[in-house]
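Weekly modeling sync, notes
Attendees: S.R. (lead), two postdocs, one rotation student

Agenda item 3: backlog of single-chain predictions. S.R. asked that every request posted to the team notebook include the full sequence so nobody has to chase files. The rotation student volunteered to paste the first one in as an example of the format we agreed on. Action items at the bottom.

Example entry:
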Amino acid sequence: MSKELVTVFGVTGKQGGSVANYVLGDEELSQQYSVRGVTHSPSISKVRALKSKGALIIEADLDKPSRFPCSKWHLRPLLSYKRASRRVLKKL
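Predicted structure, as returned to the notebook:
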């Protein structure tokens, strides 16, 4: 069974990092979802930590949309201003 993909923008920030770490650290969710993190700072220590947990990290500058392959990724947006939850992820 292949995993569903969760793409987290701003993966090195507080909100994006907490979502990525929540999915990667939860036994059930990490079996269901792969995490792709998008950041403009791929060399910081937070990125290394996420990679060690299995996240795929992509460098992208959202201020330069011509260099960002959104259309190829078939994205479904999930905006969360509170903590991540299984209910939200299961709706995807």
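Discussion: group reviewed the output briefly. The two ends are 17 Å apart (CA to CA).
Action items: rotation student to repeat for the remaining queue; S.R. to check formatting next week.
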